[in-house]
Every structure is written in structure tokens, then in C-alpha cells.
Amino acid sequence: MPHMAPAATVDHYLGISRLLAGQLDFRSAIRAVAAEIAHIIPHDHLDVCILMVDGNYHTAYETGMDTAWGNVASTPVVNSPIRSLLWGEVDYLLTDDAINDARFHFEGAFKRPIIEQSLRSRLHVPMKVQGTIIAALSCSSQTPGIYTMEDVARARIIADLLAPYFFALRSAEQAQQSAIVEAEARAREEGLRQGALKLTEALEQERQRIGMDLHDQTLADLTRLSRRIDRLARSGELSGEALEPVSRGLHHCMQDLRQIIEQAKPSVLQLFGLAQAVENHLDRSVRDSAMPIEWALADETAGALDGLEPTVSVALFRIAQEAINNAVRHAQPMAITVRLRVQASQLAIEIADDGRGLARARGRLGGGIDNMKTRARLISARFAIGPGRNNRGTTVSVVLPLGQSAPDAEARQ
């Protein structure tokens, strides 16, 4: 390379320092100083490889040419063509022709840009802070054999100018990422805590409802029957005709108790599975409503439901149960459709009706929707509720990521 006057070189070094000021990210920093570096060390391609904090991965920020090195978020250091430098095994790398230099072509090396861009002359020096390598400065030219040891010395000065600034940028980025992770963890923890509180409240409300049902309905009926039996015993009229109303009353009490128990513990779910339990509840709810509602259930999961944990199955059933109840009681629909399917390792349950929609029924649905959201959150499922197709009716959907143990319907077909 032609000799440069010391004063001019110093001016370019000072220019690098001035241009770094105010740059807030790696890419803008390297591009800001590229022209000044080119006056000191001509290049067709310039990049800085930043080591991640763990030291096992690195990422490149480049200028002059866009290559595959700058298009990936991070890659293992073990695959870097300059890994020996990043590991501190050598103080610098200098080559007249990297295309034919074995040091850059070991098995697994991410060397494609060297060949594709014909980056023959290459110069690499480490960037250090307090003796620790944090990055590497790399200059490349398509012209072979242009770099010398004098260029290595200049590159080391440039690396010393860049290293503190890039170290500060890396520390700021790491602090930002740590803050985001911590904030997300806190949000999840708070969400689970609030979800648990809401679910506890919902369970307490359910317990109170069952207690009121038993007190106001079953206990009251049994009390009346007991008094009637006492009157019959005192009067001596224990004929079959006299006992027939008592028998009928006891039968009604038994039916009421079965219904209360069924609502408290979905035995169909335990015995026959989620799809059958949802279908059974849908059928019973429509029949009890005495309304001309058409209903259908499509199970397209191909057995994936069998792999669900019992607590997950119960939560999904309760969400479907609440959605069906809301549709039957408040939407005045002509039809209700439930669809269960598996796609891309996710289980989706969709309850759709063609009724009056959310806007007119929301006042009656608030608590139930909150309970559905809470149950979904506690099993790490996504919950959504909104207008149905063509803006008619309401659609409730729950999407649950499936673990490795749950079969994928697409794989089974």
C-alpha cells in the first residue's frame, strides 16, 4: 500500500472517534466510520463480528457489501472462518488469498461469502476490552495480496478505538434484553397470580351456587317429603296411593342431585373424553332450552385429545361449557357449531353461534368471559372471542400448543 503521512493518518483516527459519537446501534456505528477506515485501510468489505456475552455465538455487522454473514442474527463461533482469532489462539489473521487459504476452509466453516464475493485479501484483528476479546475487526478486498503487517498495525489502532464503544453498545443491548426478559417474566407471574385469584373466586362462587342449589332446591324438597311422611305415619294412611306422591318427589330429588353432581364433576369427561363430554353437554343444553336450535360437533383431532393432561381437559371442557351456555341462554341462536381440530402441533376448539352477537349480550357475559380467559391462561392457551363469520353471531376459540407426547392429527392421517 502507498505510504500515508503520519499527520493525515492521525486525522483519520480522530475522525473515527468523532463519527462514533451519537451512534446508538452496531450497524449505524460501523457504517458511520467505514469511509474514514477506508482512508487508512482500503477495503471492499468491512465488518465487526460481535461476540455474544456467553462467548459461544457471534453476529456480524457489515458495510461495503451485503453478505450472508450480516443476514443472520447469530451463528456459533465454532463455525466462524476466523474462530481461531475469536478464541484468542492467534493475535491476527492475514492472507493474500482467502479463497485458497486452508485456515478459512475447515469442515463446517461458514465461508460462503468469501467465495461468492471473491474476498481474497483479508485482514482480521481482535477488539479487546481489559484484555478480553469482545469482537473482531475484519477488512477484505477482492484484490489479492494488498495487505501487509503495516496494515495489521493500523487495524489494531482502529480496533482499539472501536472496542470501548462497541463494548458499551453490547452492554446496553444486553441490559435491554435482560430488562425485557425480566418484564415478561414478571408479567407472566402476575398474570398467573391474578388468574389463580380469579379462578379461586370462580370456584368459590361455584361452591356457593352448589350450596344454594342444595339448600333452596333439594333440601327444601326433602324437607317437604319428610313432613308428608310424618303426616302419613300419624294418620296411618300408608297405602300405595298415598305414598305415590312421596315416591315421585324422591325421584325428582334424585334427578336434581344427579344434575348438581354432573355440573360439579363432569363424569362423562372422565369416562369418555373431551369431545364426548362437550357433545353431551351441547345436546343436553339445547334440549333443556326447549328452543329449536340446530347443533353439530366436528372432532377432527384424530385422537390427539387422548394425550391431554386431566387438568387441561377439565379446563378446556369448562371453557367450552361456558361458551355453549352463553350461546344457549343469551344469544337466541338458530344454530351452534363446535369444532375440534389439530394443526401445526396446536389444538384448537371453536364454538360458533349465529345468534344476536356479543354487543347485545355482553352485560350478561362479563363474568363468564373472565372465567374462560383465566382458565385458558392457566393452561398456557390463547383465548379469543369475537364476531362470527360475516359478522354474524359469536365465535369463541381456544388454541393450545401440544407437547411432544400429544399426537398430531396431520401426522396420523
TrEMBL record:
User: Does Kinase count among this protein's keywords?
Assistant: yes
Specify the GAF domain's residue ranges.
25-179
Q: Name one GO cellular component term.
A: membrane
What's the protein here called?
ATPase
Q: Give the Gene Ontology MF terms in alphabetical order.
A: phosphorelay sensor kinase activity; protein dimerization activity
Residue ranges constituting the Histidine kinase/HSP90-like ATPase domain according to the UniProt record: 311-404
- The coiled-coil segments of this chain are none
Q: Which PANTHER family match?
A: NITRATE/NITRITE SENSOR PROTEIN NARX-RELATED
Renumbered to this chain, the signal peptide range is none
> Which species does this protein come from?
Sinorhizobium saheli
